[in-house]
Write the structure tokens for this entry.
Amino acid sequence: MTEEMTERLVATADGALAAPPAPREHLGSGRTRAALRVQNCLADAAREFLRRESVTEVRLPVIGPVTDPGARGSKQVDIDYYGRRYRLMTSAILYKQVTLTAFDAIYAIAPNVRLEPLETAVTHRHLAEFHQIDVEVAGATRAEVMRLAQRLIAHVVTACLDRCAAELAVLGRDLAGLSRALEDFDVMTHQEAVAALVSLGHPQNPRAELDWQGEELLSAQITRPFYVTDYPKGSRGFYDRESREQPGLLRNFDLLAGEGYGELASGSERESDYGRIVTRMRETGENPAKYAWYLEVARTGIPPSAGFGIGLERLTRYVAGLSAVWEGSAYPKLPGVFAP
Amino acid sequence: MTVLSASAFPEVAVRDRALRGEAAAFPLQADYGHGLYGADLDDGRPADLLDRLRVVPPVFMPRRLEKLIELGREPLPDDVDLRSRLGGFQAPYPLYVSAFGSTRVAGTGLGIAAARQAGALGLPLVIGENIVPVAGYGRIERTAQQSMLLERIEAYAAELPPGVGGVVVQQSTEDADAEVWNLVHSDPNVRPLLDSGRLGFELKVGQGAKPGLGGMTLVDSQTAERLGQSYSFGSASGADPDNILRSSSPGTFTADILASQVTLMRNNFPRCRVWVKLPPGRDVAAAAAVARDAGADAVTVDGAEGGTGWAPLSFLQHVGLPLGECLLRIGWSPDAGGTLLASGRMWEGSRAVKALALGAGGVGLGRAALLSADECGKTGLANLVHCLALELRMLVSALGKYAVTEIDRSDVWPLPSPAAAEPDRRGS
């Protein structure tokens, strides 16, 4: 990290920011080793669970001519692919949908890169490079994949409680708090979340994504993971399906951890109708020509589906009780911070 | 200087102002005492609706009396407050510098000279479409040719006084491929503007000179090959390999698409201002209402008289509503929130006052800014703006008003009868 960037971080920090140490110091720390062992257990347990559910593990691409355009102002990484502009995957959502032409249910533990806005360096839960447990199920409804995600979380938390007692002790995780992840998750709509935040004195735009502070504030009020559903159109990418019954609302959800840890996962039913996909692309300011390969498949038919992506480092932070998500990465890249 | 020409524009007068500043608001001083002056009602230029309007001061001026009481002396033009709030930014005048587009004209260093002067003046600055896909953004390897966007922002920010101005970066349909907004938003060099609330993004729905068409430039064959994935290239320029016509698509909009895009901008960039630039289309009133209701801080309407870039002759002469008609149709109410901004052949005070009278909160300098920066890279734009500001103060005070924001329809004559009804209100 250069001095210049350090100064920037300090200037914008909320006081709690601790920048990642150099690799030898970071990897040599007992806390880091414990956190990474917890993460390993989480990935193993996720695979066990998904295999048992007959979900096929696939290897999704790392580069492609287009990637998930996302939202919230994160920038994609361009690479020169034999003279053409390709992108590193911000998420492989488009490939997940298309892969469902071969399998009924798929998952990958996929690496993603997003150049997040610089101010996210101090949210404790943003990394420019991270991994997702990325699941997509053909023909599924939102309710079905929400149940699947809850069962997946319950399974991996149980596995960690069983297998990582020593690591969780080193990390000082409050086990009673963590065990609440085994209870049923509550569900609130985005509109209800906005009302809750406004009543807490937080100015939340009702037509936008919950902002970073709002998400953390809401998460701090609740002791176990909970879902927020029905985000307004305009807050997410074109692939989250718009409700036919309630136009303007998306058939999507976020999963937020309790205890102030914030967002763990996002998911949705997907748009699969070609005409609606093209229209939604325009509504999100995208140029359909850029997505030619995907639209070609969509024109001939992709199955309706629903799915989600759980941030592996965020899940690690929650389960291990880490103060910041970067502690759950061996080589953390905080947005805007130059690190190996 | 003088790399530019603008035959359809009062170029000589603009260059004169760029050199002489406030003095150019009056006839030549050498003629004083010899010449007789009066209205020249036909100066030979084609008149549009705004040209045909006259600014008409009243005889009785209750606002002047209020100002007299406040000051304890007779008010003068210098007492007029020109400060304006334009699309979420504070500005010392009801003026901003509008986008120059990807025309070669702005890429010759003029764009940077204009940006520097706009910064020093505290005028909001719009940086135009297709700069990134055409010239490159150059975050890693910056050369003079390949970093137009960043260099303009830096030149502007280096001169910008605290508390005023702001940079607005345009994005059109193809610019979305290059993620211009995300790129600017995440750039460390732009952070001071973002942190001080002086960064905005403009969604380009269309433009004045060629409504219904996308941006056009002539590029050489090498550039055409590089841009091959992003644009279509026409043969309209014949076999000349150094002048290949590059066309952007205008992008498809319906009311839903426009509203959703504005909502998405607000969602993605909550700390940035959102501007929407509309072409002079027949449903411009409906489009302005959709943009405003979706939360745009500014709606810019570019009259058919506007434009710095390359355009087909048939469009320049025959397509799109004149700016005055756009403003009348929109009938912007300042109480509704947001600012209506107007551009199209703006360069002197009376035209600006007429646009303000018809609802605009500010007017954009496009060709006038380029020409004045071309005439004098150091002070040309400042001289032009100071001259324009002097005229604004004289005109507003002549109307018996002392804040430029108080100008309204009663200050101009003759007001045309209400415009023809729009057949397709929502456009979808």
Q: What stands out?
A: Chain B touches chain A at residues 171, 173-174, 176-177, 179, 181-183, 185-186, 188, 191, 195, 203, 229, 249, 251-253, 256-257, 260-261, 263-270, 295 (CB under 8 Å).
